[in-house]
TrEMBL record:
Location relative to the cell: Cytoplasm
Keywords: ATP-binding, Kinase, Nucleotide biosynthesis, Nucleotide-binding, Transferase
One cellular-component annotation, GO: cytoplasm
Listed name of the protein: Adenylate kinase
Lineage summary: Bacteria, Candidatus Zambryskiibacteriota
Record's subunit section: Monomer.
Reactions the enzyme catalyzes: AMP + ATP = 2 ADP
Enzyme class: transferase
Major localization listed first in the record, in broad terms: cytoplasm
Stretches of the chain forming a coiled coil according to its record: none
Family according to the record: Belongs to the adenylate kinase family.
Signal peptide location: none
SUPFAM superfamilies on file: P-loop containing nucleoside triphosphate hydrolases
Pfam families reported in the protein's UniProt record: ADK
Length: 201
């Protein structure tokens, strides 16, 4: 069975780490050795704002004042990847998208277009305080200033939580809420226990 997995959660919750671990597990147990398309929008945005075209410059202005990028641009990031790179026999893992209700609805239309069956949403739930501590500790350029971190966490509460609830209530998706305030190994074990059980044919 082709796997379609969406990781969602506050900044600092460990989405990327857990996505990598699950990708490795999917690859290890796939007897057909199919490829995995990994869609990580954050890195694509960082590359995009370094560009010289008009859109990149406008996007960088938004980035420089710590505002959220518009939904149409976020959708363009991952739709461009799907259109150019997705093959019919690939597993699909999303990390960092969608970030708003409108984007979640557009993603649903894309997954149905590609006839993806039973996509899973893994919501790694951590408190705001946990997120702040992890972001400050990792020391990335975007994470050195607490006011910048708090702005991103405000976006999550305002914009991403409605998308989380949309996934939770939508019968098209298999929704899993995971306690992210554990060790990396414990979070992975919880994901494997919930996700593997649900994905049996």
């Amino acid at each position: 069975m082709l796997q379609t997995v969406i990781f969602i959660g506050r900044s600092g919750c460990g989405k990327g780490t857990q996505a990598d671990l699950l990708k490795n597990r999917i690859a290890r147990f796939d007897e057909e050795k199919r490829q995995i398309l990994y869609v990580e929008s954050g890195e694509h945005f960082r590359k995009f704002i370094r560009g010289e075209n008009f859109s990149s410059k406008l996007s960088k202005k938004i980035y420089d004042v710590d505002e959220r990028q518009p939904d149409f641009l976020a959708c363009w990031m991952w739709t461009n990847i799907l259109i150019n790179e997705l093959d019919e026999n690939m597993h699909l893992v999303f990390d960092g998208a969608p970030r708003a209700l409108d984007e979640a609805e557009i993603l649903t239309s894309a997954l149905k277009f590609y006839k993806r069956k039973s996509p899973a949403v893994i919501y790694i739930n951590v408190s705001r305080k946990w997120s702040e501590e992890r972001l400050l500790a990792r020391g990335r350029k975007d994470d050195l200033n607490l006011s910048k971190i708090d702005k991103r966490l405000d976006w999550f509460d305002k914009d991403v939580i409605p998308a989380v609830e949309y996934f939770r209530q939508n019968p098209y998706y298999r929704f899993f809420e995971i306690n992210g305030e554990q060790t990396i190994e414990q979070v992975h074990a919880e994901i494997v226990g919930e996700y593997d059980y649900s994905s049996k044919d």
